[in-house]
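User: Show me an example of a complex going from sequences to structure tokens.

Assistant: Sure. Here are the input components:
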Amino acid sequence: MTWALVLALAAGAYAFKVLGLVVIGERKLPATLARCIALIPAALFAALVVKDTFSVGRHLQIDARAAGVAAAAVAASRKLPLALVIVIGAAVTAGVRALR
Amino acid sequence: MRRIWSDPRLRSVVTASVTLGLATGVFAVSFGVLAVSAGASMAQTCVMSLLVFTGASQLSAVSVIGAGGSAGSALGGALLLAARNGVYGLTMAGRMRGRLATRLVAAHVTIDESTAMSSAQEDPEAQRIAFWITGIGIYVFWNIGTLVGALAGDAIDPEKYGLDGAFPAAFVAMLWPLLRTRRGRLAAVLGAVISLATIPFVPLGVPLLCATLAIAVGIPAEPPDAAERAP
């Protein structure tokens, strides 16, 4: 992690917020663009789940993390709070790793 | 401000904001632990929460860097996630007229929770008050939680405590509510497939950027019958 990344991320994230609230303001975005932007989190969270569950560098593998994520998915489907889902994911990952 | 205490609806907003803030604070503790475990310094972790202040982007950047990805790909993925705050800004713009300086401060706390809490209110004043209480409340809890997590993170062995499993667990939890709509499910499946297919072949972190192509499922106009129904 570099300071340049931290500051660039801070500037970029704030720029988006200002762009929406202050610059564009009450003008409307084209409907198609609005629909596509709304889908970014779904696409990226899913990609992040895959990356953090099955990859080590550029290598794909199945290990204890898969069990942790499966447990987390069950917890999320039961609408448990985010923090609890994270703890369950970590605990099951650690547990399965310790067993093997 | 006196109205907050005399109006029962606004009192419930305060209660809900504090509850939400506490829950976010616990998430912030995990962010702090994970950021430090992924190689960020304590100062970097805390400055991120103070200045970036959008959890999903922060966690995404930390996850890419922790896996050995480049700063560019970490930044790209995190900023794509941050774009949604711009859309929240559009929602809030009609409710936050007034001095530029005030709006520039409001922009910093324009996030999922403050926008949602504001949108749940009916009259304009309640919408404004709910936005500020939730935004500022979460800002405080988010930063205290991050500091606590970053302090604790130094003392924790990431592998032993399954912290590598905590990252995808957090993303699963954030993904879940987005799977309610048909398009959300399509974008998620496509994003996952693109990520899986590209990981072995492109530089670290880049699969995330490729996965963004999945938002193309939003291009076709919605059918008149609105297919966006709960399953």
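The lines above are the inputs; the final block is the predicted structure for all two components together. Residues 45 and 93 of chain A are 19 Å apart (CA to CA).
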